[in-house]
Protein: Damage-control phosphatase ARMT1-like metal-binding domain-containing protein
Organism: Methanomethylophilus alvi
Amino acid sequence: MKTHADCASCLMKRVLFQARLADNGTEFAAVQAGVREYARLMSPDISSAEIATHVHSAAYAAMGVSDPYLDMKLEADRVAEKYVPDAQSFIDSSEDRFAAAVRVSIVGNIMDFGMGIAIDSPDEFGRMFQSLLDQGVGSDQTEELRRLVEGCETVLYAFDNCGEDQFDRLLIREIRAMGKRVVGVVRGAPILNDVSLDDALRIGMDRELDRIVSTGGFCVGFSEGLMKEDLKEEMGRAGVLIAKGMANYESLSDMEVPLPVAYLLRAKCLPVASSLDVPVGTNVVRVEYR
């Protein structure tokens, strides 16, 4: 997805939010570094994820903190875990376990902090959980996703936010129950509140997956320049890449990848919603072939 003018204010809100999480007096320096990098790169022809990666890299350097979201990620895991039994009950009581698990995984995508378009703390999740579950999927290609999963041996599953991954594990269990090999993709370095290898291991995600690979480094979503051989190998082997969240959509939708991609996300901002041709706030399952 290419950069929109709306992305500037969103990114700077995020930079300020994370600088305040760092709580070391670097708010001005972080925003200044982010603004300079955004001004240097801003173009309607560049991926929004690519620009965001550079902006956050500059802001993190100014803050001098490698993982400003760590405490919030721990809290997100704790809060989300409380609702896993309810989510599991929803799946167990459904006539279509796969579709129910897909819906549950999308509900978790609201755990996206600091942009003013989702929630600003994990504790806000509880009051929204049931209403999000009841909302369902507004733009729904779950049947196409099911067909792809059924027709392959390996599924790649790209995580997005901490806390959200507590619900992803329920969908992963359903896919593995179908006899499929599932390989998880995590961020190659801590960035935002996204799932890194340490985050995945902390909640035991390695026990849910057949293998874990990473995006290769510090990046919003995926970066072709950072991909290592293990990820490329799994992309060539898998029958579908399930990509959670907006960052994965923003990056992958501009890349050439050798397999179908199924985006599971909540369209939380106007640029992403417009790109997907849905209203803001829509839960989406969208399959793209390359």
In short: Residues 70-92 form the longest helix (23 residues). The domain at 70-288 is CATH 3.40.50.10880 (Rossmann fold). The mean pLDDT is 93. The first strand starts at residue 139 and ends at 140.
